[in-house]
Amino acid sequence: MSHAAGNVLFLCTGNSCRSILAEAVFNHLAPASWHAMSAGSQPTGQVHPRSLALLKREGISAAGYHSKSWDHLSPTPDIVITVCAKAAGEACPAYLGPVLRSHWGVDDPAHATGTEHEVEAAFMTAYHILRARIEAFFALPLDVLRQDRPRFKAELDRIGAL
């Protein structure tokens, strides 16, 4: 069964934790025709070391991932998913262009405080939320939804509420 190709952009502010985790997990699970990228509106310039360590522990390649601005994207995304925490008052970047947009808010583990265990737990929570949503994405009838943008958007928004 062939899948229509698609490029997904995971977008947040710093591009050091959540969007990097989403990009890596998506590409780890994706069929060959789907590809994820990530960017930030105000990139920190480095991937959080805990994000890299977590991906390594989960057996997901972190090679080549870096914190980058959305000004230098190639190719153009078909779908843009913001992962910033609007509820926490975080400014969500608004990607301009004729793309399908959805919001999958996740608290930023880079701002977690407390003990080593508590901070690590914040990263694992973000990872598990994103992985569950990405698995739900790949469970969708993607070939069908590519032809029905309103339904595709509704499904993406439903996943973002998981």
Protein architecture, described:
The protein has 162 residues and is α/β, with parallel strands linked by helices. It has one domain (6-160): Rossmann fold (3-Layer(aba) Sandwich), CATH 3.40.50. The protein has helices at residues 18-29, 49-57, 116-138, 142-145, 149-160; strands spanning 6-12, 34-40, 79-82, 100-103. It has a 4-stranded parallel beta sheet with strand order 2-1-3-4. Helix 1 (18-29) links the parallel strand 1 and strand 2 (34-40). Helix 1 (18-29) crosses helix 3. The longest helix is centred in the last third of the chain and has 23 residues, at 116-138. The protein is globular.
Q: How many DSSP E strands?
A: 4
| CATH architecture descriptor name | 3-Layer(aba) Sandwich
How do the strands of the widest beta sheet line up side by side?
A: 2-1-3-4
Amount of beta strand = 5-15%
The end-to-end span amounts to 27 Å
| pLDDT < 50 runs, ≥5 residues | none
- Overall mean pLDDT: 89
Helices and strands in order:
Blueprint: E1 6-12, H1 18-29, E2 34-40, H2 49-57, E3 79-82, E4 100-103, H3 116-138, H4 142-145, H5 149-160
Parallel strand pairs: 1-2, 1-3, 3-4
What are the salient characteristics of this protein?
alpha/beta, four-stranded parallel beta sheet
Could you give a quick summary of the protein structure above?
Pfam families: LMWPc. This protein is an alpha/beta fold. The protein is about 35% helix and about 15% strand.
